[in-house]
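Structure in, sequence out. Go:
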């Protein structure tokens, strides 16, 4: 792997909209990615292995719980800072950003928002330091876009709950210490339970043969008469809205993260276009390549502005689910299109692991699918603007 000489495009001077603290945080994560992720990520992706030695370092750079209050081990940062952290990590690899997103938005988030004080004190500080790693179980084999149809269920057995069912496509499940599991009670109401590795009847087989997010571990969660202690149920919110609210935060992270992947593809293609000559001149001098590069930087710039504005709305507590859907959908699609164009600029070299583009491109196939597919986010916008629900 070549040295990481990444330079971020900032065509509209979005940096001027950031505070010194934002830039400091962004630059320190960028430096960490150059030092710790870029040199090893291709090898791990080729081997389809998660670089678990990065977990402690992710905790050290503040990637676990950036906006969880300091008293619970988080960093107490604002939404723009949290977004910039995701952007920089995904510039390295979407799979590493997945681990940070899941730990922060989908594990620490629900415990902080819906858990008891005892649960917050027991789990959050250890999740922040990476001593514990979590995963989030919503999707099931027969219920992906429609999680409300889930069949995973628990029964009240007096001094414990008895949990049965299965979850599929769960990031980090093969090595997670705890799982936030969404399941229905006997009345059919959805609650979140904290299931711990080692509980009898709980297993987490890994899903193999992925062509996407190869440096991220994905697996199942299987519950076969698992006895879950009663104090592991998060009592402070129930119904489908509970997991969906967590997704707002993770989708927001993807809106920023996908910009990182796109910036890496653009920067790689721009540099290559100046170095590679055909027909006696750099390929960047041909109009067709300039069209590709100009459109890439235009789309990245639009996505940067969308993410920044969404972050300011989120800081003010004004960002809606539909606004977050629009940014997740737009920016994930933007990134995959940028990756495809960038791949072409590199010709044959674009398909090799000597450059990061093909890995980003394959990763983005998951990014455009998880946290709600491209279609689902379009329909969320459709419902918001027409008032007519296409899901029912
Ligand atoms: P619907 O009837 O619309 O809503 C059910 C209840 O939930 C409320 N609600 C929300 N509450 C808070 N925040 C939100 N964002 C909310 N969205 C909806 C809603 O008000 C209602 O409340 P109530 O009190 O009336 O019951 O639900 P629906 O069944 O029609 O489904 C709507 C739909 C399709 C939009 C939703 O199910 C959906 O978003 N589906 C996509 C599923 C999805 O995104 N799964 C992601 C799984 S996790 C993942 O992919 C992690 S990858 C992580 C990584 O590796 O980075
Ligand atoms: P389906 O819901 O079966 O959709 C198939 C197709 O039908 C899609 O194109 C979809 O857009 C379309 N479709 C569905 N409903 C409609 C409709 N009403 N109108 C029009 N088109 C529709 N889940 C978790 O809970 N936790 C995780 O950590 C997690 N990590 C993941 C990691 C990876 C690598 C991947 C690939 C997925 C992960 N997921 C996770 C699951 C992810 O959220 C789901 O894959 C996603 O929500 C889509 O569900 P599905 O795959 O079952 O597709």
């Amino acid at each position: 792997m070549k040295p990481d000489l990444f330079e971020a495009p900032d065509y509209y001077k979005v940096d001027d909209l950031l505070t010194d603290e934002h830039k400091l945080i962004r630059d320190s994560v960028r430096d960490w990615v150059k030092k710790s992720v870029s040199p090893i990520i291709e090898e791990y992706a080729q081997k389809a292995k998660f670089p678990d030695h990065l977990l402690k370092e992710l905790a050290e750079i503040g990637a676990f719980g950036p906006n969880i209050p300091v008293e619970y081990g988080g960093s107490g940062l604002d939404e723009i800072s949290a977004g910039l952290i995701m952007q920089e990590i995904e510039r390295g690899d979407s799979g590493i950003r997945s681990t940070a997103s899941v730990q922060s938005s989908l594990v620490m988030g629900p415990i902080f928002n819906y858990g008891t004080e005892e649960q917050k004190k027991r789990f959050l500080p250890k999740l922040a330091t990476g001593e514990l790693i979590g995963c989030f179980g919503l999707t099931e084999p027969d219920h992906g876009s429609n999680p409300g149809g889930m069949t995973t269920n628990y029964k009240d057995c007096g001094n414990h709950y008895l949990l049965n069912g299965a979850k599929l496509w769960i990031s980090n499940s093969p090595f997670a210490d705890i799982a936030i599991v969404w399941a229905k009670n006997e009345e059919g109401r959805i609650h979140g339970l904290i299931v711990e590795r080692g509980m009898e009847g709980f297993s987490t087989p890994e899903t193999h043969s992925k062509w996407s997010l190869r440096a991220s571990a994905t697996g199942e969660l299987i519950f076969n008469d698992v006895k879950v202690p009663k104090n592991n149920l998060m009592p402070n919110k129930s119904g489908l809205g509970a997991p969906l609210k967590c997704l707002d935060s993770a989708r927001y992270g993807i809106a920023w993260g996908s910009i990182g992947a796109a910036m890496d593809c653009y920067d790689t293609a721009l540099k290559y276009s100046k170095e590679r000559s055909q027909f006696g001149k750099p390929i960047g001098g041909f109009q067709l390549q300039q069209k590709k590069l100009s459109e890439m930087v235009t789309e990245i710039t639009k996505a940067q502005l969308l993410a920044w504005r969404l972050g300011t709305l989120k800081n003010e507590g004004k960002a809606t689910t539909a606004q977050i859907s629009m940014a997740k959908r737009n920016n994930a699609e933007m990134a995959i299109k940028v990756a495809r164009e960038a791949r072409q600029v590199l010709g044959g070299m674009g398909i090799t692991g000597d450059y990061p583009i093909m890995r980003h491109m394959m990763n983005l196939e998951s990014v455009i699918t998880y946290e709600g597919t491209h279609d689902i986010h379009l329909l969320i916008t459709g419902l918001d603007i027409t008032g007519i629900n296409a899901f029912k």
